[in-house]
Amino acid sequence: MKKIIPALALLCLFTTTRTSAQFGKLKDALNTGAASLINNKQLKLLQNNPITTNFDDCNKTDIMPPSFGADSVKKQLCSIKSQYSSEEGFTLKPGFYTGTFKSFCLQAGTSGPDKGNGYLYAPLVGPKEKIANTLIANWEQHPEIEQRKVQLLLWAIVAKTNFSKLSADLQLTAAKLLNKNDLSSLGSTMIDYLSGEAMSKLTANLPEPAKTIIEIENKIRGLMYQANASYDQIENLAMLGGIAPADPNFPGGVWGLHPDGYYIKYLPHSYRSTEVVIYVPQKAGTVKYLPVGDVAVPASRGCQRLGQSNMLVCEAE
Question: Half-sphere exposure of residue 316, counting CA atoms within 13 Å on the CB side?
């Protein structure tokens, strides 16, 4: 079964020392002129990232090169779909397996996945971990809901959007996937859209990438509060153009060890779908594979974190 890894004690936009310094500058900016435009509660919300999963949460020691298992015969997960259960996932014996699952972007203001960047497993963690996990997990029971609507709700969470101000359609979707307590939390602990003047003063002294991410999250909130905003408009904000620099120590297709004893490599087709290749060693015996709650995390912090779902993509469907 999956191991539960405790959330970080200090929940900042990033977990690096550099980023802590960036938010120290954010506080300094308030002290030098923005205090009249934003209160301490709003500042705290800006500092806290609802989903904190990042590459520091990955096991970077137990890895294998992309070439491992290249000539192996891999069983398609679609061929054993009848053995899947939503509670335990797939039961896998030693060997190689592959399948493509629908996935989600969990970090706005970053570049889309590319073949040069390696991805490793990390758990979904952060103040809104439970809500985000519930949202993705419950989608499996509501296949009539478009993937893009679930993605919009996830972007709303990471952008700290007040759910009570979303469009009626998105609120209806959220009500199908979340309970009343979750919805209440998302309507009371988030932040409103900040004016251009407030954002300019808040971010004037901030270095990248904190400046860009805070500005993009604010713009996403603004669009989320507009009834006529389109998915494409929000996606264009969330997705930065270009390719993030790759880390040569973690090339595309690198294998990482999952806490449950098997190795997994992530090969994103886009942020919307991720191909996985799984190797179960003999010593691991039989394992369970349930993707939801797992995050494919890029070695490059400029790339998108990809939340995995249980929705397997099979050609016959």
Answer: 5
Q: Which pLDDT score is estimated for 75?
A: 98
Compute the distance between CA of residue 150 and CA of residue 121 in angstroms, rounded to an integer. Answer: 22
Residue 215: both structure tokens together? 């500005």
d(CA 79, CA 44): 48
Q: CA-CA distance, 302 to 244, in Å (whole number)? A: 5
Q: Is residue 29 part of a domain?
A: no
Give the residue ranges of the chain where pLDDT is below 50.
1-27, 29-34
CA distances from 175 to 13, 132, 145 (A): 28, 13, 12
- The verdict on residue 201 lying in a domain is no
The pLDDT of residue 207 is 76
Reading the block at residue 228, the tokens are 């006529």
Q: How many C-beta atoms lie closer than 10 Å to residue 69's C-beta?
A: 17
- Residue carrying structure tokens 């205090």: 35
The domain containing residue 305 runs over which residues?
Answer: 56-122+246-313
Q: Would you say residue 215 lies in a domain?
A: no
Domain count, the chain: 1
Whether 267 and 306 have beta carbons less than 8 Å apart is answered as no
The token duo for 296 is 């494919």
pLDDT of residue 194: 78
